[in-house]
Every structure is written in structure tokens, then in C-alpha cells.
């Protein structure tokens, strides 16, 4: 924040809005904007703050600001010279919200966001006017000034919420009256003191900023043959501008209000000069009203004449709009179809590309697996060959061992086999003898049987022959 303060202070053309201390007299150096250097009386409230508006290190006008209503109660200034409006650069006063702020000058709201404590607690901000239906109307219109005086007028401490039409009429009427009536009827232009103010109401923008119930302007020509007068504008009569004496105007203000007192010429005021200035104001206002009436009549006549052409033009416009809608709808459908086809093609291409990449990825991933599988098979083959060689070697080495073992066991097995062989031989011989006996017996039996059979055959035949 210190760097920000230094950067802002270094700007060559910067608006300073110094809050006047209580121990200072009036508005300090801005007392020069009041007749006789005496500010108005009757506006002493705890929530009223005096501001001496500066620009380029010079005082430009004075403002009494209400921190409760968050609008200026009045701004005192001098008429300099009218000029076209420049670019608006709205500023805020940091000291209103933070008396301890190191910023002793007005700054752009965006430049101090987050650096000033309670910003907006005692003054209006630009955000209060956003989407509110109200404009920032200047009590001290920038159109009455040129150069630095005009730039200094665009501060939120000099603005009140006004409807767009009321803001336009206020700036227009005040500029015309001051430029065409008041200034020409003051023998010394530098002696024309102006105080523009607003009377707060209970209506508030976004619950914060008071909407004025009326606007007023008090003028004092503090010169030989001087004069003073007042003007009042109400929202109910946006195009009207009531002319009053200063005393009559003070009755519309808070009780005890005294705008000029004896500071505006005193007994040296000229009633004739005041009347002349007042007549000039009324002439401007009546001429404005007449011009508005004439323009209204002309507008009515032109409206009657132009109505058929306007209707025909509206018909043609509606037909053209309809054709344009059809063309746009056709183009939209065509674009939609083309975009859909293109999108489908892109999607198909994308799907094919994804599938191709997926297949390539699968093949690439399978290559290491196949290589690993081949290597494993090769290793298994080598192991099998090694196993076979080992088995063959074992078998080759095991033949002599078996032969030696069998040869060493031959005597033992031969001796052990002799009893078995003798037993088997005896059994064989016994069997052979038994077989011979059985064969002999069977042969004898056979012969006996044969003899018996022959005998039975022969003996009966002999018997029969006998």
C-alpha cells in the first residue's frame, strides 16, 4: 500500500479532495469560493464533512458532504468558462471512510480497493449506481468549466443519484441559466459565486445513497450593483426551473439555513440588476418551454404525416427480418448438417486411428512376450538336453558296475543254486520214473482192454456158428 501511495502521489495531474479539519476556519483555502469568504450557516451536523476539492495542487471548488446520506449537500464554485465535456474519471475520497489513511487526495476507486479500511462506509461508490436506474448527477456541472476545473468536478463527492432525464435537464438548465443569464448580468464575472445543492429524501439507492427530493442553485453577484437569486428543480417537474429569492429558497432548506447572509453585497445590492437577471432567467426558461412546445407541435404534425410511411417501413422491416431469419435458419441448419457430418467423419477417423494404434500397441507389447517365451523355451531345451546327457552318462557308467556286481555274485548264486538243482533233478527223475510207470500201466491196461474187446467180439460169433 505504501508503494501505491507513492505512485499516486507522483502523478502530475491528480485530483486532491482534502477533508477540512475542525480547527480550520470554514473551508480553509476553499473559502475563496464563497461570497465574502463566508460559507453558508445552518448546516452543522456531526455527519457533515467539509471538503476542499483540489486539482493540480490548486483549489477548484468546495463541498459539504453528508456521510449519512452519502451525497453532497452543496458544492460552492465560480463560473469559469463553458467547454465540451471531457472523459469522465470518477474519484473517491479515502479520508471519509478512513481518517487515518495515508492518502490525502482523491483517487480512483479501483486503485485503492483493499487498501482503504471500510471503503464506502461513509461515501457512495460507483457500484451503488450500477443497475440502479440512476446516474451520477453533478451538483457543480462540469459543463460550466474548462480544463482542470472541469476535470475536478467529476468526483463522487460532487454527485447525487438522478434519473437520466432529470440529470440531463439539470445540467442543461443550469448551464444555460448561468452562461446566458447570470454571468452576463454580473458586472464582474469573477464576482459571480454559485452554490448548487440537493435536499436529501428517505428514498435510497440500494439502501445506501439518498435520492434528492429537489435540487437548488443560489447565485450571488458580489459586485457593484450586485444581486442574488435562487432556482429550484424538483423531480416532479423535470423540465421546470422555479425562480425564487434567496430568502424563499432558504425556507425550503433545513431550518436556520443562511446561504449568503450579509456577505452578498449587503445594502449595496441593486433591485434593478436583480430583476434584470431574474427576467433573463425567465426568458430563457420560457423560450425553452416555447421551443419545447413548438418542437412538440412539429413532432405531432410530422408524426401524422409520417405514420403511414413508418407503418410501411415497419412492414418492410418485418418482412426483411423474417427473410433474414429464414436465411439465418437455413444457414444454421446447413452449418449444423455440415458440422455434424464433419464431426462424424472426425469421430470415425478418430475411432480408426485409436483402433490402429491399439492394434499396433498390442503387437508391440506382444513382441517382448513372444521373445521371452522363445528364450524360455530355448532355456528349457538346453536343460532337457543337459538332463538327457546326464541320464545317458549315468547309464553308461552304471553298466560296468552292474556287470562287476553280477560277476561277484555268480559263485554265491551258483553254490546256492546246487541244492535247488539237485532237488529239481531228483524231482525230474522221480517224475520221469513215475511217468514211465504210468505209461506202462496204461499200455498194459490198453492191451487188456483190447484183448477183452476182441474176445467179446470173437466168442459170440463162434457161438452162433455152432
Describe this structure in words.
- With 466 residues, this protein is of the alpha+beta class.
- The protein has a domain at 2-269: Extracellular Endonuclease, subunit A (Extracellular Endonuclease, Chain A, 3-Layer(aba) Sandwich), CATH 3.40.570.
- It has 6 helices and 14 strands.
- It has helices spanning 2-9, 94-97, 147-153, 164-182, 246-252, 271-465; strands at 15-19, 48-55, 58-66, 71-78, 91-92, 107-108, 135-138, 159-162, 192-199, 204-205, 209-210, 214-221, 227-234, 237-244.
- It has an 8-stranded antiparallel beta sheet. Strands 5-6 form a two-stranded antiparallel ribbon. A two-stranded antiparallel ribbon has the order 7-8.
- Helix 4 (164-182) runs antiparallel to helix 6 (271-465).
- The longest helix has 195 residues, at 271-465.
- The radius of gyration is 64 Å and the shape is rod-shaped.
- Residues 1-15 have low confidence and may be disordered.
- The helicity comes to 40-55%
What is the CATH class designation of the domain at 2-269? Alpha Beta
User: Roughly what fraction of the amino acids lie in strands?
Assistant: 15-25%
Q: Report the strand count.
A: 14
Order of helices and strands: HEEEEEHEEHEHEEEEEEHH
Number of helices: 6
Q: What CATH architecture of the domain at 2-269 do you see?
A: 3-Layer(aba) Sandwich
Q: What is the C-alpha radius of gyration, as a whole number of Å?
A: 64 Å
The CATH topology of the domain at 2-269 is Extracellular Endonuclease, Chain A
The name of the CATH superfamily of the domain at 2-269 reads Extracellular Endonuclease, subunit A
Strand order of the largest sheet: 1-2-3-4-9-12-13-14
What structural class is derived from the secondary structure elements? alpha+beta
Low-confidence runs = 1-15
Largest sheet: 8 strands, antiparallel
